[in-house]
């Protein structure tokens, strides 16, 4: 689990609270201020993990009708291996009050994985990773970015799924580390709602984990919605097909 600069020009979790002040129709385009707390933007095509910080535009074009019928995902949904949970999270909705994002890209981190934060055991920061599946794990990366993960599997396992990218449905989330260990299956606050399964899923190695063992660096544990514009760089390492 290492910091990345994604399609968001920053990250999923760390956004300005001011960005939550107005609402948009499903096809509204709005210009956003620059900066590390800026709202999500599309990649500039530099397939090297960087995103452009200029001319930030956000298009909210995901159908809100799907969200209206979305149910809160139950506790049991999360009690499986992170590698199985990761592709099942694609298409699901993250909601915090009126703020909604649809998950388009994830990475799985498993026990005995040399790229997983849990590899060092239980610490003050990583304690939520060892809790029961269905809780948030939020950590600060490089002192700048709040990174959102969803804990997977049974209590004590030490596994999670990193949310790399999302499509904006309404506005962007504004989280801090105080949300770490929050239960996503309980109504109120930060929730994970059911959503449509993607028709096709891309798969490839994870990003920014060169410190890990070769078998973990090369493991195809990154998943993304095929055809989505909301996928972080590098995109060239993601390949079809993947049967969910």
UniProtKB/TrEMBL annotation:
Keyword Cytoplasm recorded: no
Catalytic reactions of this protein: Hydrolysis of alkylated DNA, releasing 3-methyladenine, 3-methylguanine, 7-methylguanine and 7-methyladenine
Enzyme Commission number: 3.2.2.21
Alphabetic keyword roster: DNA damage, DNA repair, Hydrolase
Coiled-coil intervals, chain numbering: none
Gene3D superfamilies: Methylpurine-DNA glycosylase (MPG)
Any one GO MF annotation of this record: alkylbase DNA N-glycosylase activity
CDD domains for the chain: AAG
Gene Ontology biological process terms from the UniProt entry: base-excision repair
Enzyme class: hydrolase
Domain of life: Eukaryota
Record function comment: Hydrolysis of the deoxyribose N-glycosidic bond to excise 3-methyladenine, and 7-methylguanine from the damaged DNA polymer formed by alkylation lesions.
Family from the record: Belongs to the DNA glycosylase MPG family.
HAMAP family linked: 3MGH (MF_00527)
Protein name (record): DNA-3-methyladenine glycosylase II
Species assigned in the record: Dendrobium chrysotoxum (Orchid)
């Amino acid at each position: 689990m290492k910091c990345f600069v994604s399609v968001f020009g920053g990250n999923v979790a760390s956004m300005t609270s001011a960005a939550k002040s107005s609402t948009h129709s499903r096809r509204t385009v709005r210009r956003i201020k620059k900066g590390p707390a800026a709202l999500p933007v599309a990649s500039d095509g530099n397939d090297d993990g960087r995103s452009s910080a200029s001319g930030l535009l956000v298009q909210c074009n995901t159908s809100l009708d799907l969200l209206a019928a979305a149910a809160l995902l139950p506790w049991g949904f999360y009690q499986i291996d992170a590698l199985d949970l990761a592709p099942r999270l694609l298409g699901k909705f993250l909601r915090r009050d009126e703020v909604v994002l649809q998950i388009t890209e994830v990475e799985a981190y498993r026990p005995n994985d040399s790229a997983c934060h849990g590899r060092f055991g239980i610490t003050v920061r990583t304690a939520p990773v060892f809790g029961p599946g269905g809780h948030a794990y939020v950590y600060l990366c490089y002192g700048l970015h709040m990174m959102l993960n969803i804990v997977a599997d049974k209590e004590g396992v030490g596994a999670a799924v990193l949310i790399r990218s999302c499509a904006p449905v309404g506005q962007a989330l504004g989280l801090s580390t105080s949300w770490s260990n929050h239960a996503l299956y309980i109504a109120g606050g930060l929730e994970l709602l059911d959503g449509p399964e993607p028709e096709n899923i891309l798969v490839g190695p994870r990003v920014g984990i060169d410190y890990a063992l070769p078998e973990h660096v090369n493991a195809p544990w990154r998943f993304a919605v095929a055809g989505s514009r909301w996928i972080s760089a590098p995109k060239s390492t993601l390949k079809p097909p993947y049967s969910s």
